[in-house]
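Worked example 3 (structure in, sequence out).
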């Protein structure tokens, strides 16, 4: 076994703690000359799993490595540094990572100098770190979601003695780091963090433990980042938080999400989005701001999780189905063309068929434009994982399919309703399936495929929808 240098280790107990104190720091670490010399022009590879928060973290890691004059590669076989940026939200997210780590064994055998790093939400869980340390001797550096600012320092330590593995995973989450480098994945759309962490502690969810306490960035730091994006020609900004409606609760300034959203919209970025909204925290003043600004997309991702009051209660979600439906109605009354999407979990421990049917019923009442559905996955350390569950996986899977077919009816119908109409579309790139076709995103996050020149990528163009499928649409360019 290789030696291990442990700087910090995660703890579910510490991850649960919520203190008042938030400190903002300016990042200032300078890499050693030796690190520059060893890594200059070398290749790095990053694979990210999970949500937008992780994607934004990847951009910070890429920023660090670009500053060392390293070059990004998309093929892990060419890597000198490989980073697996992991997600812990469901078991299948973790299984993918375990599979991938296995594959790195050969790469490490071929390239002895490869530095294999693992970070992200998975390693914020003590049992995962124990397992990884024991099973995969060839992982060199472990760092957590609260240690991302230390990545270069850890590389500096590692290159002093490559026989020693480094573990630095903290569960302390009161800090915000500004001034971190960033290399964006896109030149025309960007994620901007507004809050980190989550204090909701839904009983099934690991995120509050892996991402720590909820903390808001200073409004000026957010606006500066957005202004820079606008100056650089970005067409779309998505404000990120596990619960954006909590923005500002921990600040003394009295600024809330509606105020922040309005200030961002006023910068004049062509498209502004935000993610994710929590139903009972969603305030009326946010509806007014969305209605007032054309550049705020009329699309709301509003996870419901369940349509049964008894299940919502056991999940620790702080609203009822009636309140959720009333909120949807209230928003539609002010913004009739608002498109809704949601997240739903099927098979929370002991969920009965009747309770499941209430979810299916709510799903058909809301008329979603899109929906993300998941089968419940027990997460070690969460309250729900301690419940004895008397519903087997096969039953859950059957219900899951039943829900998907209910949702697909509205999803298809809403797609069909777009046929014949013209939509501004942000052109994202070549279609994955057909290389002669471009694909872009409409205000409601629907993907539209159309014929067009590659030079349109990154621009907003008008597309007339001519054909609809459940999950995508076909359109044609309309002359201005
Ligand atoms: N903060 C966001 C979402 C975070 S995780 C929110 O509250 O809406 C993204 C989605 O994963 C959740 O909305 C939920 O539907 C799903 N999810 C979280 N934990 C899960 C678990 N243990 N099993 C299955 N799905 C889960
Ligand atoms: Fe998880 Fe609930 Fe927080 Fe969303 S609001 S991240 S589901 S605990
Ligand atoms: Fe996954 Fe962590 Fe995001 S658990 S969903 S990467 S916050």
């Amino acid at each position: 076994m290789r030696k291990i240098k442990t700087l910090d280790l995660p703890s579910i107990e510490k991850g649960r703690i919520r203190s008042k104190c938030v400190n903002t720091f300016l990042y200032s670490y300078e890499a050693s000359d030796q690190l520059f010399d060893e890594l200059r022009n070398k290749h790095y590879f990053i694979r990210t799993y999970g949500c937008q928060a992780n994607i934004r973290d990847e951009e910070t890691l890429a920023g660090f490595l670009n500053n060392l004059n390293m070059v990004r590669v998309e093929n892990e076989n060419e890597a000198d540094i490989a980073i697996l940026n992991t997600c812990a939200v469901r078991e299948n997210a973790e299984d993918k990572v375990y599979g991938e780590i296995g594959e790195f064994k050969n790469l490490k055998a071929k390239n002895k100098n490869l530095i294999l790093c693992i970070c992200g939400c998975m390693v914020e869980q003590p049992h995962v770190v124990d397992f990884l340390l024991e099973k995969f001797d060839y992982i060199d550096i472990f760092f957590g979601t609260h240690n991302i600012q230390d990545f270069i320092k850890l590389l500096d330590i590692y290159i002093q003695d490559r026989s020693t593995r480094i573990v630095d995973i903290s569960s302390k989450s009161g800090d915000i780091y500004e001034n971190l480098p960033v290399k964006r994945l896109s030149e025309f759309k960007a994620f901007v963090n507004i809050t980190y962490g989550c204090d909701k502690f839904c009983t099934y969810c690991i995120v509050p433990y892996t991402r720590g306490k909820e903390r808001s960035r200073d409004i000026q730091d957010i606006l500066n980042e957005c202004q820079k994006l606008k100056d650089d020609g970005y067409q779309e900004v998505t404000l990120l938080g596990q619960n954006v409606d909590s923005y500002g609760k921990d600040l003394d300034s009295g600024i809330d999400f509606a105020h922040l959203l309005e200030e961002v919209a006023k910068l004049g970025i062509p498209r502004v989005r935000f993610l994710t909204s929590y139903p009972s925290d969603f305030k009326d003043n946010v509806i007014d701001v969305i209605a007032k600004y054309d550049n705020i997309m009329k699309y709301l991702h509003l996870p419901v999780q369940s349509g049964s009051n008894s299940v919502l209660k056991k999940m620790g979600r702080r609203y009822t189905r009636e309140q959720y439906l009333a909120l949807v109605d209230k928003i539609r009354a002010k913004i009739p063309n608002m498109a809704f999407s949601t997240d739903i979990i099927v098979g929370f421990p002991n969920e009965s068929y009747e309770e499941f049917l209430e979810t299916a019923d709510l799903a058909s009442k809301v008329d979603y434009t899109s929906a993300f559905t998941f089968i419940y996955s027990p997460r070690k350390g969460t309250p729900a994982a301690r419940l004895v569950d008397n519903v087997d996986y096969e039953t859950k899977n059957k219900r899951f399919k039943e829900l998907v077919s209910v949702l697909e009816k509205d999803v298809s119908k809403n797609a069909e309703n777009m046929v014949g109409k013209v939509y501004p579309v942000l052109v994202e790139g070549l279609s994955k399936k057909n290389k002669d076709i471009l694909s872009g995103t409409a205000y409601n996050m629907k993907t539209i495929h159309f014929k067009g020149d590659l030079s349109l990528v990154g621009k907003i163009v008008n597309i007339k929808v001519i054909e609809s499928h459940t999950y995508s649409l076909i359109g044609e360019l309309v002359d201005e």
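Notes: The longest strand covers residues 422-430. The chain has a mean pLDDT of 97.
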